[in-house]
Give the backbone structure.
Amino acid sequence: MLHTYQLDEIVAYTLRTMGQGFKVCLEIACMAADAGLVSVKKEAICIAGTGTGADTAVVLTPANAQGFFELKVHEIVCKPRL
């Protein structure tokens, strides 16, 4: 076994350093953009959290999953302490 990480795992672990809700906000934005529900040219707000409820809100410009690194976070409205 090589004990290596895939790029998606590295991104997920890195985003989790800001909290699980932060990672989920970015995932929601990508999924909504992929489904055509939000524009990748306009700002949006994503609200997410853990199993106990919504505790994180982020203002961002979404991106499609293939262009994940084009996603721009403009403001962290709220997030829990870690």
The chain has one domain: 7-78.
